[in-house]
Amino acid sequence: MPKQLSPDPPAWIAQKAPHDDLVLFSECSLARNLGGLPFTAACSEEERRSVESRVREALTALGGRFPGEYIAMDSLSLRERRYLAERHVIGAEFIEGLSPRGVYVCEEQGLSVMLNGPDHVCIRQLLPGLQLNQAWNHVNQLDNALASALDFAFHPALGFLTSSLSMVGTGLKMGALFHLPGLAANGGLPALSDKASEASLILQGVFVGAQLSESTSRRGCRSLSETLETSLEQSIFGDTTGLLGCSLSQASGDLYFLVNRTTLGISESEIVFQLQHLAGLLLDQEEEARRDWLQASLLGLEDRVGRARALAGGARLMGFSESLALLSSLRLGIATGVLKGHNLADINGLLFRSQWGQLESKHREPFDVVHANEERAKLFRNSFN
User: Fold this and answer.
1) Which positions ≥6 away from 361 have C-beta within 8 Å?
2) CA distance 40 to 17
3) From CA 168, how far away is CA 265, in angstroms rounded?
4) Cβ-contact 10, 109 below 8 angstroms
5) Average pLDDT for consecutive 10-residue bins of the chain (385 residues)?
């Protein structure tokens, strides 16, 4: 079994980072295609194998600059592929495991290179907290290193060519996952969503499951096995452009994803600047909402956190959506000082470990819904007793 399939949460989620009380992680994905070849969907198997071979050779030639291991999707079970998708090392498109398709995973699972997804290459960096510029710098360094050995498809007027028109230009999608219970409670999110739209950004809720966007369904997520479909609502998935989103009103666990919409006619540095500016507004207004909450209804906040703490320590069955709601209250309690004796790293670890694929991989056996809910409740009891 590849070492990247360890049941422990990825090391990066426990690291201290800027604004990690409000931002779970920052994500940067960069799509590239090799010149002279059709996009992946139109490639023959021989052409896809050529892509895999050439990119792997380029990665190997980098020596120890980006240490990691390559994992072929057809070498993994469905459970193992889902495990990697839940950790956002791969997109949900890769769960099908079509050959030849794989991912190069660097140490700590923060940096990965997906091969033969919608695009030939997708470089992804995950970092804790709000670290958009750092995430871009890491991805850019690896992109430059690969570009010295690979001929990426580029048009002088359009920029980098990608399989989706929404990625043409820079090929860059960047975002951050925010925890915004204060703004969700005071109704401040729609106005901020409008501000995001004005800046060619999208503020959306985080969707639980894998059957949401038409683009994802076209790429095959609707044809997953029946076994997987019965458990879809017990994971948070993304595709190669970021987390799967939904309307603000449908968000789970007070989790919201801010991502750029425009990649054409704008530079990478401008994308980072726009995201950082809007992220600053979100942080300021969420902090203000929490201060107002503490002043207006400290007892109500203590009650919400106390109930979540009691349920986390005593539940015998727990669904995934329920666990997200509990984690929202517990995270809020830690950040405001209402809940003592726990830290954000514990909460981040529970968020990852309570997903279906993580539970199955830990126990190395197939689950049904009741078994998954039982093991998830046990995970919470062990953490809060």
Assistant:
1) 5, 7, 79, 80, 83
2) 36
3) 9
4) yes
5) 64 88 96 96 94 95 88 90 91 82 90 95 96 96 95 95 94 96 96 96 86 40 44 78 84 95 94 96 97 95 96 94 95 95 92 88 79 93 92
Question: In what order do the strands lie in the sheet containing 245-246?
Answer: 68-72, 102-106, 111-115, 121-128, 23-32, 172-179, 255-260, 201-206, 245-246
Q: What is the pTM of this model?
A: 0.90
Q: Which residue, among 191, 206, 202, has the nearest Cα to 250 in the 3D structure? A: 206
**DSSP-assigned letter for residue 70:** E
Residue identified by tokens 């739209």 is 197
Tell me the CATH architecture of domain 3-289: 2-Layer Sandwich (3.30)
Instruction: Give the residue extent of every domain in the chain.
Output: 3-289
* 65 contacts: CB under 8 Å, gap ≥ 6: 145
Tokens (6 digits) for 305: 């956190």
d(CA 69, CA 51): 17
